[in-house]
Write a structure and sequence with these properties.
It is found in: Cytoplasm. This protein is α/β, with parallel strands linked by helices. 47% of the residues lie in helices and 15% in strands. The longest helix has 19 residues. The termini are far apart. The structure holds S-adenosylmethionine.
Length: 427
């Protein structure tokens, strides 16, 4: 059993019904997220050297323990299932070992040991299943209580939000459809025409997504577009556009009029922008261009946008709840590497803003090196731009002291994201 994001996304079980597939996906995502905590508990319960245990046996133990600790699976069902799996996939002795370890933990589940390594960051990282370096950064920045809340938020099963697309349907029609199909939902407290849902299955089965009536989009992404505030008839340049979530939202806010240049260097991902534009009734507005933005902006006389959106590649440290395996793939070095590309993309985007126009720089990370530091460095290189506050565009509680949009999973129950409004001088 592989527990990485690509596998979670692609998981399909032939002949399994949708419910079984969903449960399997949730199980794999949960085990991936909780891996470090599960390994700690298993390591404490196992009498041998857990770290040198064969990989497949570790995976079976993790799955069984996850079901015991995080799902309401009755003990006998969870244990029997994984004992059987170990016997069939490995050998009879492996089944006995799984039985012994899982039952030992279950018998004493009120007294599962607390990590006590003498290092606060490491203890928290073990308990809430994150890399220690990440936790250390957040401890230094937020303190113990807030860091604990953030870690918990990163481990929650993500909620979904969808944007109702006014180019295709109305809020009343979507509400009536959801009512008719018993889909539990609540309005977003932060954005118009946004709904929060626990599951998307009904919308997928009912073709609401494929037909472009609604689009899945985290509220933090919706707030970035609200901050961009594109107007009907304008020219918008989206410099890192694929797969097009924000561009499509912008198209809806532009009421289907104006031009959106959707640039991305990844041809396949850019095709998804075209498909989305077709489905969502925005294809007339969208000019999709496969290109590296740095080269695209360096051409003689590139287009000039009233607004330019630069939603850069980043470490994704604001979306750890949704991307279960990401925390294990990131390192401190990524922050530096990303910063270099982010600066180059910002310089390119600056070439594309008309005098008096607006550049919005956005990320889905909570980390200052990719956010505030990049804006500060940009302003030091470009004295023709100034920060315009996010106040009045997004809820006050999400506006940082420096006037940026900054959302956090534990504070706002949405992805962590950042965005800055940078106004180019008129002259
Ligand atoms: C965070 S994603 C953009 C998400 C998109 N704005 C949306 O809302 O759906 C970043 C995108 O930047 C693109 N990208 C990375 N380097 C680029 C470059 N040098 N020029 C253009 N696009 C680039 C990636 O292919 C990726 O699709």
């Amino acid at each position: 059993m592989r527990t990485d994001d690509a596998f979670v996304d692609k998981l399909t079980i032939e002949d399994a019904d949708a419910r079984t597939r969903r449960q399997a996906r949730e199980l794999v995502a949960g085990v991936t997220r909780q891996r470090r905590w599960l390994d700690f508990v298993l390591g404490e319960a196992y009498h041998g050297d857990y770290d040198s245990m064969e990989h497949r046996l570790q995976e079976i133990l993790r799955l069984g323990l996850y079901e015991l600790l995080f799902q309401s699976t009755p003990t006998h069902a969870a244990v029997d299932e994984y004992v059987e799996l170990a016997k069939q996939a490995l050998r009879p002795g492996a089944g006995n070992l799984v039985n012994g370890v899982l039952r030992t933990i279950d018998r004493d589940r009120e007294h599962i040991p607390t990590p006590d390594t003498g290092d606060d960051a490491n203890d928290l990282a073990l308990r809430y299943s994150h890399p220690t370096w990440m936790v250390q950064r957040w401890l230094d920045r937020f303190g113990l209580d807030e860091t604990t809340e953030l870690l918990r938020a990163n481990n929650r099963r993500p909620m979904y939000s969808v944007r109702i697309n006014p180019l295709r349907t109305s809020e009343a029609d979507v509400a009536a459809w959801l009512d008719e199909h018993d889909v539990v939902n609540v309005d977003s407290p932060y954005l118009d025409r946004y709904l929060r849902l626990k599951r998307l299955q009904a919308l997928i089965a009912g073709d609401l997504l494929d037909d472009g009536h609604v689009a899945v989009q985290d509220e933090s992404a919706g707030l970035v577009v609200q901050l961009l505030d594109p107007q009907p008839g304008e020219t918008l340049i989206d410099g890192c556009a694929a797969p097009g979530g924000k561009a499509m939202h912008a198209a809806a806010r532009m009421e289907g009029t104006g031009t959106i240049y959707a640039v991305d260097r990844d041809e396949q991902r850019l095709e998804r922008v075209e498909t989305a534009a077709e489905a969502q009734g925005a294809s007339e507005m969208v000019e999709a261009e496969t290109a590296d933005l740095r080269a695209w902006a360096a051409r003689p006389e590139p287009p000039q946008g009233d607004r330019v959106l630069l939603d850069v590649p980043c470490t994704g440290m604001g979306v750890l709840a949704k991307r279960a395996g990401l925390r294990w793939r990131r390192s401190m070095e990524d922050l530096e590497e990303m910063a270099e590309l982010q600066d180059e993309l910002l310089d390119a985007a600056a070439q594309l803003v008309r005098p008096g126009g607006l550049l919005v720089y956005s990320t889905c990370t909570t980390e200052p090196e990719e956010n505030e530091r990049r804006v500060e460095a940009f302003l030091a290189r470009h004295d023709g731009f100034a920060v315009e506050s996010a106040e009045g565009h997004v809820p006050d509680e999400m506006v940082s002291d420096a006037g940026f949009l900054a959302t956090f999973p534990h504070r706002h129950r949405m992805d962590g994201a950042f965005a800055a409004r940078l106004r180019r001088d008129e002259a």
